[in-house]
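Box 3.1 A note on notation
Throughout this textbook, protein chains are presented in two layers. The first layer is the amino acid sequence; the second is a token string describing backbone geometry. Keep the layers aligned when reading.
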Amino acid sequence: MYYVAEVNESECAKYNCKQCVLFCPEPNTLMYHNTKHTAWVNYSRCKGCAICVYVCSDLLKRNCIQMVMMTTGD
């Protein structure tokens, strides 16, 4: 079991800011869907660092991303 970021797409689409994508240190992990105007996570690449959560929740006060527990079978 390990933690990965999960984006609340309906909340994220309200802001269209892309800041979490810019701050993610792992390439091709936190991506932006241009037509849906929301970020999304490639769970298999997410290292669980939670920098995106810090940027979204603590710095921007938007609370669109949270860390969720994953198991190897998910």
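The CA atoms of residues 15 and 62 lie 8 Å apart. The mean pLDDT is 94.
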